[in-house]
Amino acid sequence: MESLLTITQLNDFIFCPRSLYYNGIFRNNTDQEFYHQTAQQIGLAAHQSIDEGRYSSRKNVLTGIMVYCEKYNLLGRIDIFDIDKGILTERKYSVSAIYDGFKFQLYAQFFALREMGYFVKQMQLYSKKDNKMYPVRLPTQTDIAVFEELLHKMRMWSPETDSTLPNPNKCKRCIYSTLCEYGGEE
Question: How far apart are CA 175 and CA 134, in angstroms?
Answer without folding.
Answer: 27
